[in-house]
Amino acid sequence: MDGEPRTKRLYFSGAAGLHVRVSYFNDFMWKPALAAAGLIPEPEEGERYASAREHGMHALRHFYASVLLDAGENIKALSRYLGHADAGFTLRTYTHLMPSSELRTRKAVDDLYAGLRNEDHGPQTAHRE
Length: 129
What we know:
This protein is mainly α. It has helices at residues 22-36, 57-70, 75-82, 87-94, 101-114.
């Protein structure tokens, strides 16, 4: 990154006002919420929640990326939002989430003609000379 370092307020912070560690967030906030929703099992007494990449903080990042890509955000911007140094890495990681070109093509054509559906273009509208 270029420019002078800047201090920003955190959206979420721990009791001391510092950043929330991923492990703390996963173990005491995110996974209990998943268990309460019935998406993952509660741990046995004295045990931790099972470790699974798809149930941790990574799942939130993946969801965020999928929402932005589905909305049409470009890879370069998404890479910056996720803090990736290389947009190529972002593309390789999230390309499977990008809407297919066939869907975009159909939507573009549908959107073009959507406004014309209420107009009468039948033979009776031809100009008489």
